[in-house]
Prior knowledge:
alpha+beta; 6 strands
Amino acid sequence: MILSMTGFGNATVECRTKKITIEIKSLNSKQLDLSSRVPAGYRTLEAEIRSIVQNSLERGKVELNMYVENLTTDSSVHLNIPALIGYKSQIEEACDKLDVEMPDDWWSLLLRFPDAIKNENSVEVDDDERMATLKAVRMAVDQLMEYRTTEGQKLEDFFTNRIKNISTLLSEIPRYENERITKIRSRIEEALVSLPKVEYDKGRLEQEMIFYIEKLDINEEKQRLRQHLDYFLETLNGSKGQGKKLGFISQEMGREINTMGSKSNHAEMQIIVVKMKDELEQIKEQVLNVM
Length: 291
């Protein structure tokens, strides 16, 4: 079974007067690249939050956002106007320099920034809030993992179909091989005949012909490619975390396909090689999303 590195999860937990929401999303990356945005009053929990994510997700470019909403009216809690003004000014400057459109929904954007809401009272996270926050993180991570599993199944089906297509194309090559050898031999003999007053030893010519044709033999490449195709499918059904291995196998498949193309000397075989390369490129592109 394979897992995708692409995923999304969110969870909301209410704790007395607070509603705590965790959103987490991931994309492909060679290692775990985790960034988190946590309100100022909850930064003491950031190490525990990151530990939960790191222990569960292993790889991927992961972004975690935490939002806290007060469920009661509290005069000590109000918008941090100076901070909002600063954020808005910087966004306007960035849009101008990057030549991109201004946001349509300013409030939705600005209220996502850290310290957009200011609490005049000192904020201390009690045990109930801590437990609620960590519960929300675990729920969001579990949801993201379910998403990764679903996407992983789609990737597995995709890879299986692409490997099957390459295998079918590979099985079409033998029917052109005898014809290919005959054509190569005929071309060489016709070239010799067309040369005026050239004498040659027919026995030596036959030896050189055999040597040349052996250099164009692709039986080893076909055998190795078949082994790589089988190993790729075997790895798909192995344990999770096989993304890098699948990448290495696809590189080896590419080497055998390229060698067959350079040795083919036959139009129909080269067309088959091009089709195999197209299937393989699709595999390589999607392998980057595998855990």
